[in-house]
Amino acid sequence: MTSVDGELSIEDSRTSAKYRIPIRNNSILAADLVKIRGPKKGKSLTKNGDGLLLFDNGLQYTAIKKSKISARDAATGMPLYRGYSMEKLTEMGADFEDLFHLMVLGSYPNAEEREWLRAALAKEMMEVPDAVVKVVQAFPRDSPAMSMLLAGLSAYISAYPHGIPALQGSFIYHANPRLADKAAIKTTAAYAVVLGLVSCHRKRIPFKRASASGTFYSNLFTMMGMVGPNDQVDPKILDLFKRGAIYNADNGMTHSTFVLLTAASAFPDPISCLTSAVAAAYGPLHYGAQEAMWNNLQSIGAKENVPAFLEKVKRKERRLFGYGHRAFAVEDPRLKPVMGWLRELNVSEKTQPLFGLANEIDRVASKDEYFRTRGLSANADFYTAFYFNAM
User: Fold this and answer.
1) Active-site residue 142, yes or no?
2) Which CATH number fits domain 81-281: 3.30.70.1130, 1.10.580.10, 3.40.50.1820, 3.30.2090.10?
3) Of 48, 77, 197, 212, which is most buried by a Cβ count within 10 Å?
């Protein structure tokens, strides 16, 4: 039990009863509030009887999980991964295997541990169930990628029924960390395989399987058809992607993370948990913001239309996606690195005309009292689409 930092003294004006609620880690337990009971008024409609309930619309002020994986740096607002800053991990040249070992398995790996994980991921990525290939390729090539991805993940778990707890009649992962770790590795590999199949199907190019000697990212690029002459991955692009992934590996209790934990609380297989999280993330108020923002820019058309568009935003007739962020009270600290990566990729108004339009929206909005007084500024999602497009 965490030590008590202090107490919250409460007097209920309805009953004159007094309560002392322990404060731990700057939080109180909702279960302690249930001890506060009001005057009985007829039949109770909740399982807590007449105990006080906490209502927090949207869980904006409620902590639902104590995490050892991520926290937020008080000075910069940047997420910390088990105490490691993003800057430190970038300096260390952290690859996917390093991040996975740190965040999922609990420690930054040594050379032997990193190689073991690399080989394990590569082995799983080399296994491509026929059912997944057939399901993905059954879609019209111009279908939304997310629809194909969700279907592919569902087909993937169907190829491994022994990994579905309900079919086995037991909690096969519960209290079995070793099996859970293996399932996490398979789930990660499945995600990469399905991404590769979807990418190649949409591009109308043959799918190339992962290599036993490849790293996670190099295999991912190969499977997605992101290769140059002689099927080689561009080392500059790979390095840039690796650095970008560090800044997007975790962002605390996001919507998709919450959905994943909710799904996991019923103890299904990890791939099903991932599928639920991916579906939730596609909303325009989460990772779908990048695609929604891109479509927004296309609909605006030209710089001279920006003021009129922003006026519609202020009247709530249009939505400006990629502006403001629930997790950051100030400017999104990820924005500066993203802009640096765009410069490395030579992104400009000349190479991507919509980039100039995005800059104009940013320029006009930054001088507008409506956006300034509400603390609304571009977040990383507002510009990340240009990063992926350049790749």
Assistant:
1) no
2) 1.10.580.10
3) 197
